[in-house]
Amino acid sequence: PNILNGTFFRKKSTMAKRGAKKKPAALKKAEGTTRKDRDSPTAAELAAGSLNELPVAPKDLGTHGKKVWNEFGAELVACGILVLLDLTALKLLCEQFDIVAWCDKKLNEYGDVTYVGKSEAIRPRPECVMKGAALDRIRRWVCEFGGTPASRTSINVHISPEKTIPQRQRK
């Protein structure tokens, strides 16, 4: 089997999730349609062993990855979502930001197209394709952590008063 043409791995389905999209708990409460028997447990209840502080970023992450680790990871800890098992997923997310930064550097240096063959056909540079794939993986990982408004509807998070997101200082 050839790994490059996709015959080695099965392709993912592009079908959407079944059923109606989940409404946020606040909207259900405002409409008066909340029911205790249908409420999903909060993310804090599911992750009873959530981390109280973010571990130091892995040494093999680049500068962009470490920045995402410190900022996004701190927000996940403050929300009580981040569990020890999630650190690997967070690292994979941060690595994608390093890939995008590397691709941007190469594209700024060489341009975004290349000329191939005797006819010198214009083709996108491999870095363009790599960047697009990394951005797609970033979008998917961020959704897994509830980082978009649509993905937060499937995660109910209650921030406790002792876990607050640190305010960034203005320079």
Share of helix among residues? 40-55%
Uncertain runs are 1-11
Strand content: under 5%
Secondary structure: number of strands: 2
Question: How confident is the prediction overall: mean pLDDT?
Answer: 76
Strand order of the largest sheet: 1-2
Global outline: flat
Helix count from the secondary structure assignment: 6
The first-to-last residue Cα distance is 55 Å
Provide the succession of SSEs: HHHHEEHH
How is this structure best described in words?
The protein has 171 residues and is mainly α. It has helices at residues 25-31, 43-46, 63-79, 87-110, 126-144, 149-152, and strands spanning 113-116, 121-124. It is built from six helices and two strands; from the N terminus they run ααααββαα. The chain has a two-stranded antiparallel sheet with strand order 1-2. A hairpin with a 4-residue loop joins β1 (113-116) and β2. The termini are far apart.
